[in-house]
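fyi for ur records
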Amino acid sequence: MKLNKLIQLYIKKFNKVGLNNPLNEIRYLIKEKINLPLLKQITEDNIILKNKEEIKIKNILNRRLKREPVDRILNKKEFRTIKLNLNKYTFSPRPETEILLDIIVKNKIAPKKILELGTGSGAISIALLKEFPNSKVIATDINIKAIELAKKNAIKNKVIDQISFICCNWLDSFVNSDFDLIVANPPYIKTEVIKDLDPEVKYHDPLIALDGGEDGLVAYNKIITALNPLLKCDTIILFEIGYDQGEKVSNLMRESEIMYVKVFEDYSKKPRFVLGTNKKNLISY
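which gave:
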């Protein structure tokens, strides 16, 4: 079968199920699956696929038609400057989470010892170590399969010597703390909302990484309550949050005597990050 004929066939199928940018997705999946460069796909009109190639391509394109995300089909994702492997136990990192790194860099926070709660694929921790190569990270996750993958990603990105992993639920394994920075992107979606999410999310991201409980704040409550006795005066806490949770998470921090709190916006100008500390001059308003 000619490649162009197959592509046109699947563009129609992708459009029928409401997938955006079908040509880009199709060409990218073909490139990744049979190692056929994009330039060659575009400039050579008469590429004839071998039978095995056609079967491979149709298989992955049919998976996408069923709304399986591209990164899940390929089991890999790029995040900031790093390349990550994924598995079914880990949340697929989103581009907006990169803003969390930008907040740290732009506010001239230079952490030496970092704690990440709920590391998943290790995206945030590994990206932080690329920004701050002299730092050390402890990364936690409740799922041992996620920890195992994060270790592999740390090795892949050459930061394994700077990062330690603990399998635990949030702060349950910590009785004291000397961290300069604590970061987390916990589950924040209200349970009742999950059924309305896109199929790519609700069927392919792990539920434990999505479900924030009835009010979406269960994880924040647990983390912030446990934080207070562990904090140094100059420890900075940085959360990713839901777009409607800025005030609620800020209040939780203040109620736990985290005195200085600032909310940051995402690319769409929605409040999506909350930073807190007990040392006033660490953040600018």
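The longest strand covers residues 271-277. thats all i got for now
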